[in-house]
Amino acid sequence: MLKEITKATINELSITPEEIDKVKDELGTESVGMAVLTIKRRILSGETPMKVTILSGYDRTEAVKAAHLKVREAGGLDKMKVVHLKEILKCLVPGTSKMRKAELVAALNDILTQETYTEEPVKLESVKWDMSDDGWEQTYKTLCSRVLQIVLSGGDTYTSQIVEFVAQVGSDWLKQYAPQTIRTKGSKWRSMFKSETLRQMPQISFNGRCFESDDESIARRINMAYSLIYSGLKGLYTAEYQVKKAKYERDVQIKQSNQTLVQWDSLHKLLRAGDEILRNPQAKKKCYRDAVLWLCLMTGRRVNEVLSSVSEYRSHPTNPRVMYFKGQSKGHDIDQVLEIPVLCDSNLILAMLDKLQKWGKTMSPKPGQTLENHRTDINNRHSKELSKRVKDLLPGNHKVHDLRKIYAAVCVRFIRDSEATVSEASYVASICGHGSIDPETGLYLPCSNVAAVYSQYKVTGYPLTN
Fold first, then answer.
1. pLDDT (tens digit, 9 = 90+) per residue, 36-74?
2. Is residue 123 in some structural domain?
3. Could you tell me if 110 and 197 lie in one domain?
4. What is the mean pLDDT of residues 264-276?
5. Same structural domain for residues 309 and 219?
């Protein structure tokens, strides 16, 4: 067995027959090949003085480390293919290759049992965050480099180290950002990890779903890291969202116990004022304040959304009590379209908006003006007059924004489907435009302050056929 290799090894190291017989007796075997392997391993490990100079630059510690990691990755010696067992044995006992699997496993098991490897965790310095818009790209690159550092360290506990690192990053982000923002930044981090891995490791490719490499071990580790970045951050922001949702529900209960009761008929002055404007083709421009307040109540939109030329309102093709609105001033992309319920026929709302435009009360952004400043200009120009007028039309000491709260209260009690699976929190957030859409569920993630703001009123007597 192994005659050629055994002969070459004996000649290379000047091993005598007496030495071979002695080791055979120690091992209790008649295999000359096994005895020669053992002698050679002892020489390479330093147990036996080396007789000739071979393998210059050979690092026994690194060879043992690499062998242990490959065996761990495979799940044990018995699960490894013969070709891989031979590769490991060549690292530990160079110059050997021709053995059957059982002999390879026995030889490697003997070596790895005696020569163990203790893994030391990768030590990472604290990440210094640059929270500016320009600094985020460098921050993402830093995070990717840290994860790759863990992956390429070869440590067997790399998964727990990555989980711990992602948790550290997520916890730092939660101190400054909302859960939905963390989800967005986590997606960007994961995307950057893919591009940085491909840039730093040309031997790695990405097939659209996972990383690939001739070295299956490294590909497996990188794919695991890619997955852990996503799952780790998702667990953090989902948990934080659940905390905020619980707070929301507590706030709802507190507010509902102290709700202000509003009879729909008590709004008759505002309702009648809007009706007169719509019925009278000759309605004067001075009535614009009543028109704006009426629209705020019927649509639940803000003053700067009613009076801005950037806003768009469209009727629903089949439901006259639903409209499409684009131009949300808070919490959404300006181009995002919301489907909102309205408290009267949508054609009446379009007619009232048309009157505001004809009166010249709709404002457009100035050249070079940001949308935020445009909205501010609208509020500054009209807030004083509207605040005064709403006190004349509504009973009690109401503010303009209270019309939005009353709108939400009507929708929750009279329009929302009582059998809907969407929670009240998500429903109110969606019609008022608070929060953001979860890309996985398609549902709105409500902001934690929505309950406190929109649970203030309880409306009775709303006529569903008005």
1. 777 766 665 555 554 433 444 456 676 777 777 677 666
2. no
3. no
4. 92
5. no
What distance in Å separates the CA atoms of residue 380 and residue 300, rounded to the nearest whole number?
A: 20
Structural domain contains residue 359: yes
Amino acid present at 175: K
Chain position carrying tokens 């003006």: 369
Residues 23 and 92 in one domain: yes
Distance CA 107, CA 5 (A): 15
Whole-model pTM? 0.50
pLDDT tens column, 271-304: 999 999 999 988 888 899 999 999 999 999 999 9
pLDDT tens-digit series, residues 175-221: 666 666 667 777 777 788 888 888 888 888 888 788 888 888 788 88
Asked if residue 108 and residue 153 are part of one domain, the reply reads: no
In whole angstroms, give the CA distance from residue 281 to residue 287: 12
Domain containing residue 295: 260-460
Structurally, the chain folds into a number of domains equal to: 3
Q: Is residue 376 part of a domain?
A: yes
In a shared domain, residues 439 and 412: yes
Co-location of 448 and 336 in the same domain: yes
Domain membership of residue 466 (yes or no) is no
Cβ-proximal residues to 388 (8 Å cutoff; 6+ apart), any chain: none
One-letter amino acid at 288 equals Y
Burial label, 450 (beta-carbon count in 10 A; 0-12, 13-18, 19+): buried
For the ranges 141-150, 322-331, 362-371, the lowest mean pLDDT is seen at 141-150
Same domain, 360 and 307: yes
